[in-house]
Design a protein that fits this description.
It contains six helices and ten strands; from the N terminus they run βαββαβαβααββββαβ. Strand 1, helix 1 and strand 2 form a beta-alpha-beta unit. It is an alpha/beta fold and 211 residues long. The chain has one domain: NAD(P)-binding Rossmann-like Domain (Rossmann fold, 3-Layer(aba) Sandwich). Helix 1 crosses helix 6, helix 2 crosses helix 3 and helix 3 runs parallel beside helix 5. The longest helix is centred in the middle third of the chain and has 15 residues. Pfam families: NAD_binding_10.
């Protein structure tokens, strides 16, 4: 049985992925989150709930031990968390990482929308996000970084992807689409290895998020 640890397991995308994994994949899930009482419906046969903070290296390295896949869906200061994730994976010999972040890591968002992102998020936040991605890309883990457009709760799974080095397209994406792409990554071990992938909803190019 595949072991998958979800870091930030109460996040909105993470909950969609968790639900689909339980329905569609023979996997044991480790649900890692800061407030474990938020999860009240864990399946004792297939899930282990661990209360912990990714900034706590000792707790993280213990939770990552024995896993096949680390899926990170986090908020906060990203650079120290990325460093801990890579360090814990190296210590435990875990190779596969799926890491969800936002668009604009490489100044790849063109035009007015790209300018607006930099201004609205702020220099400090954007640089922290970029440093975190660089830590992952400079590591020897088998990563897929998912650079998501602005998220909404629509039920559609209409999405397109762009590789690093290409201009980002679109402004929005459903959380269901991100979950669907993560499921594809988990189903196909050859898909987008050691890649940074932009994801958006086709036809949403605009100067601001097209809600």
């Amino acid at each position: 049985m595949t072991g998958i640890i979800i870091l930030g397991a109460y996040g909105q995308v993470a909950r969609l992925v968790r639900s689909r994994l339980l329905q569609e994949k023979d996997a044991h899930l480790t649900l890692f989150l800061r407030r474990s009482e938020r999860i009240t419906d864990a399946d004792p046969e297939r899930e282990t709930v661990v209360e912990g903070d990714v900034n706590d290296y000792a707790a993280l390295v213990e939770a990552v031990k024995g896993q096949d896949v680390v899926y990170a869906n986090l908020g906060g200061r990203f650079e120290p968390m990325a460093a801990n994730i890579v360090r814990a994976m190296d210590a435990d010999g875990v190779r596969r990482l799926i890491y969800v972040t936002g668009l604009g890591l490489y100044h790849e968002v063109p035009g007015e929308f790209g300018r607006w992102i930099e201004e609205s998020c702020g220099h400090e936040v954007m640089e922290d996000t970029r440093r975190a991605a660089a830590i992952i890309e400079d590591s020897d883990v088998n990563y897929t970084i998912i650079r998501a457009a602005y998220m909404d709760d629509a039920a559609d799974t209409d999405y397109e992807t762009t590789c690093k080095g290409k201009l980002f397209r679109g402004t929005t994406i459903s959380r269901a689409s991100i979950a669907d792409y993560i499921m594809r990554l988990l189903a196909d071990q050859q898909l987008d290895n050691r890649s940074s992938v932009g994801i958006d909803r086709p036809g949403t190019d605009a100067d601001r998020p097209m809600w």
